[in-house]
Amino acid sequence: MKENSESSSEYGDISPISEHILFEKYEIGRLLGCGAFAKVYQARNIQTGQTVAIKAISKQKIVREGFVSNIKREISIMRKLHHPYIIKLFEVLATKAKIYFVMEFVTGGELFSRIPKCRCREDLTRRYFQQLISAVGYCHSHGVFHRDLKPENLLVDANGDLKVSDFGLSAVTSQNRVLYTACGTPAYVAPEILARKGYSGAKIDIWSCGVILFVLNSGYLPFDCQCLTGLYQKIHKGEFCVPKWTSPGLRHLFSRLLDTNPATRITVDEIIQDPWFSKNYKEIKFHEHENNYKNDGSGNILNAFDIISFSPGIDLSGLFENFDNSAAVESDRFITAETQESIATKIGEVAVGEKLTMVKQGDWKLNLEGPNGKLFVGIEMYQLTESLAVVEVRSYEGVWKKRFRPCLNTLIYHPEASVE
């Protein structure tokens, strides 16, 4: 197998043993796809003959971009989930430069590639959605909330069944705990995440399921705008138009799934009881099991499953022990009722004390730079409503949350203190 020349500096050969064999266990086949931080290959277990998919992740890239916690989270979550509609993670291997996810090989590709140019038939839409809710309900019952559900993260196997993948943004918590971390893909993100009110992981997954169902039925997104500000406004207001071919039962379900009020948004249990959803629905029965894997004892391979299985704190720090994480990227998002001028003024005051220079990139974009123009903080603002704006921050070396965020409490909009 030969890698593309343009990425060889980041990844090099996939195998530390030879060009075709990974750890004397997996024969590497064709390249299936490339992402920002990883390449996915088809491979064969030499011992069993089983076809698998191997995701090769560059440690250097994920450390540089601040995604270490996402990888650790994905490993620990996928270890505990065993469901027919969730992709299986067989084992995790690592070298000094890379981490390898050995996963179930799914032949059908992404759900998006299976959606016709216009839309899916309603019976097929229902079938996919039933499988999605089965998987999501299972995750929620185990205290796992995906937080980035979208067709790109849904695969289809040879039998035409869904497989939920990519748990890198998932959260593990109790059903009643409130989450605050900004996450998700803009077109699929729930309005309460934009408003930074604190949110239920279960409720935002339901919202994303509603967007996915809409795409399956319609062939297009319910909330779509080339301008991010316009997209945020539509999501915030819950503005969408159901196509004329949509059946009355499905129209009603959309109104419950895409309810901008999370308190009244439909739950998984209520979805299962919904007349449109329950047609021909059969709850699947399966036996959960734990897969047991053994370290091969070679010394240069770190098997994360061993760490997860025997460490009470699920300490995965060893995966990244050879990398410096000081330059990790952090992100933040909050709602404000202040004008961009007021926000810029306050940030500028703090920047002076930190010996950083504030550089305006436009009315709604700021950079905070150090000596020689080194970027420490990038800030973008988007108008959400006439009186509210979204502020998004990308920061390097921990500057924002340590120095700036504590000084901005008076600028942050707190909806619980307002009168609607």
From TrEMBL:
Residues forming the Protein kinase domain are 26-277
Task: Name its GO BP terms in alphabetical order.
Answer: signal transduction
Q: Name one GO molecular function term.
A: protein serine/threonine kinase activity
Against Pfam families, the record matches this protein to: NAF, Pkinase
Stored Gene3D superfamilies: Kinase associated domain 1, KA1, Transferase(Phosphotransferase) domain 1
Please report the stretch or stretches of sequence annotated as the NAF domain. 297-321
Secretion signal, residue range per the UniProt entry: none
Know the name of this protein? non-specific serine/threonine protein kinase
Origin organism of this chain? Papaver atlanticum
